[in-house]
Amino acid sequence: MIKNEKQYRITKAQVRRFQDAVAELAGQARPSNISARLWEAEREAARSQMEELGEQVEAYERLNAGRSKGVVLEGVEDLPKALIRARIAAGMTQESLARRLGVKPQQVQRYEATECGAPALPAF
Q: Tag placement on the chain: N or C end, fewer CB within 10 Å?
């Protein structure tokens, strides 16, 4: 999941690199010292990674442009990612959220990096 603009830029660059790699692999003949199954697995792995990163980029772009249908919460374990998606959909950066919460931007970054794993929930 892409959580901020920096990750977005990095992921977009990775997608371009994978696109180049997939195109290069498609244009190459299988080396004689690599089995057909292994060669196809390598090509499929590159395609799969490119598609997965592309989906993450598209999801971030939809959220950031306000084109997402909303944030779906299937269970309490989805709450951290739902909060991050809601922040992005609201057009807020980690820095602007930090200002509104009265905390340092690094604190929001840490919470999101760990998907809110750091704060302790009260025991019942």
A: C
